[in-house]
Amino acid sequence: MSSIVRSLAIAACGLATSVITALVFVFASKAWGEDLYTFSVWGLLPIGAIAAGGLAASGYYFGSVRLNKRPDAWLLLEMVVNAGLTQLLIYYLGYVTLVLADGQHVADVVSFGRYLDILFTKAHLQLGVGADMHEEPNELGSVGYGVAAIYFVGFLLGGLMVWGFLRAKPFCSACDVYFRKLSKRSRSYANTDSALQYYNQVFRHPFDSAEFASLLRAQSKVSKPGKGAMTIDTILHGCPKCRVQLIEEKVQVHNGKQWSEVRDMQRRVEVPASMDLRNLFQSAR
Q1: 249: which strand partners?
Q2: H helix runs in the chain, sequence order
Q3: Per-residue confidence (pLDDT) for residue 51, from 0 to 100
Q4: Exposure of 156 by Cβ count < 10 A (0-12 exposed, 13-18 middle, 19+ buried)?
Q5: 218 backbone dihedrals φ, ψ, rounded to 5°
Q6: Is the dihedral of CA 154, 266, 72, 66 positive or negative?
Q7: Does residue 78 sit in the same domain as residue 126?
Q8: What mean pLDDT is predicted for residues 220-244?
């Protein structure tokens, strides 16, 4: 399949999920009586728009992975344009489906442009923790356009997260395809010192050595992780064409409440082309 055909197919996937996302958000909002797209935390963090952007961009993700095309600057530009069109579609669907109390459709009364102006400038926003909830909030006025811009940025952020996930996926540049996960090993350690004993030693040994096999097979699991506990996920990837393999390690640390990634400790190590580590990984389960 040519690069142009792949790009068009991926664009079609992105367009499809964008339309589906707009339909879901508009009709779910009407069913629940809450505008999901404009849902925000403290009026500043546009959670709804970020979620919409991620869902709309999911078509680009699955299309790119399925058709083995890495995200480039052109795809990024395409996603930005698509974000604007999808946001406009969400507003338009809200416009054509809005019915007044007397049963009259809003679309029969005002133009779409006037509807947007009323939607943005007549909206209300109440900020601050501990504010008097009985006090009638003021209309946003022209500031409403700035709030709409925040939603657009949130939508873009959701799409950019998907683009970033695509960029981070292991890719075989020689065959122009994404690696596929073949196997995975997970370990957890009670503290950093015990985790580093494995982390600092494992790749110092040749892949075909008894020392490497012993470290890979070693079991380590913490049932109740506390502050300072670490997990190390060791993932074996393989190219579906040339069969070259790649080992990826992802590290997380527990801060006493939740896990967070340690990006500086994440690494990828190429396996010699003549070696196949699938049996070793599977025997280590």
Answers
A1: 234, 267
A2: 3-32, 47-67, 73-97, 112-121, 143-168, 192-199, 210-217, 278-283
A3: 93
A4: buried
A5: -60, 130
A6: negative
A7: yes
A8: 92
Q: Mean pLDDT across the stretch 95-109?
A: 87
Evaluate if pTM is beyond 0.70.
Answer: yes
Predicted local confidence at residue 133, as pLDDT: 38
- Of 169, 196, 228, the residue that ends a domain is 169
Torsions phi, psi for 101 (to 5 deg)? -60, -30
14 and 135 fall within a common domain: yes
Measured between alpha carbons, how far is 75 from 64 in angstroms, rounded to an integer?
10
Tell me the per-residue pLDDT of 246-269, one tens digit each, with 9 for 90 and over: 999 999 999 988 999 999 999 999
Rounded Cα distance between 34 and 38, Å, is 9
- 128 and 261, same domain (yes or no): no
The three-class DSSP label of residue 177 is: strand
Q: Which residues contact 79 (CB under 8 A, 6 or more apart)?
A: 14, 57, 60, 159, 160, 162, 163
Split into its structural domains, the chain has a count of: 2
* φ/ψ (deg, to 5) at 127: -110, 160
Short-list 89, 65, 73, 74, CA closest to 16: 89
Q: pLDDT band at 284, cuts 50/70/90? A: low
Residue 273's domain spans which residues?
177-283
Work out the burial of residue 111: count CB atoms within 10 Å of its CB; fewer than 13 is exposed, 13-18 middle, 19 or more buried: exposed
Out of 144, 169, 194, a domain closes at: 169
Residue 13 and residue 62: Cα distance in Å, rounded?
8
What is the H or E stretch that residue 261 is in? strand 259-261
The residue-averaged pLDDT of 216-243 equals 91
pLDDT bin (cut points 50, 70, 90) of residue 277 is very high
| pLDDT score for 1 | 63
Task: Verify that 149 and 211 share a domain, yes or no.
Answer: no
